[in-house]
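ok so I'm stuck.
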Amino acid sequence: MTEPIRVLRKNQFFHTDGFPIVVTRRDPQEPFGLHAHEFWEIVIITGGKGRHVTGVDSYELSAGDAFVIGGARPHDYQDLEELRLINILFDNDELPWDLGDLSEMPGYHTLFTLEPAFRQRHRFDSRLRLEPMDLAFAIETIEKLEHELNERSAGFRVQSMTLMMQLITFLARCYERCRTPRNQGLLEVADAIAHIEINYAEVITLDQLIKISNMSRRNFLRTFETAMGDSPIQYLIRLRIRKACERLRVSEKSITEIAMDVGFSDSNYFSRKFRDIIGMSPREYKRMYREIPLPTAGEPETAEASR
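replied:
not stuck anymore, here's the structure
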């Protein structure tokens, strides 16, 4: 009978203050067994050799390999030959993924979404492999992050989050500039995703995205939907709705103006899609965040409330 997979809990590794980042070192990695997490990990191999096991598949590891493990993905390390690694544990729901222009980087989408989704199909050959100088810089950044987390001095939250996002951005840039036959296909899909993120308010067609990806229509759609869980056009609609939410919370513009700003040419279509995705109308959403009370029965809406 197969033994149940052990699940590592956040309260076993994360500080009691709730900060969502932890650095752990395995120097060397000891036999551990197949396990999953309540959190995510960035794994960076710093030395030695071993095999990364994910259920029935296993892949060779060596210094410079870097990859992301989602919480629900069981994995283990076997055939250990002084394998040394650094794990950066993080709560995926607590990191500021919408910070700045991170989502406009093809390397970010490849590292955190596409490569994990296609790891089995690509036999792990599309993973990020850091050159020695890049590995040294990544380790240096992690050491600074580790120092902040250990000291927990005033301001450590800001500094630690800054260093974490710096590390993520650096790894994404490394992935983007290291285009090889092994990862080219994933990066081409990531180019299309980044194009959507940058130009979401413009007219974007499926044919444009297929041309950017340099893939066949069938292969592009299959790859995109497998990794992202949506068709390219549905992904675009969800992104526009998310951007609309940001504006509705703070902007004085009308709902129609906001709809146009994020790429919808028809405000009625915008309202239908908004309700489908968010579960309420744009007007209700705006009232909720701007603390404008709903009118009572028979009471006319004010000009402000109907904006």
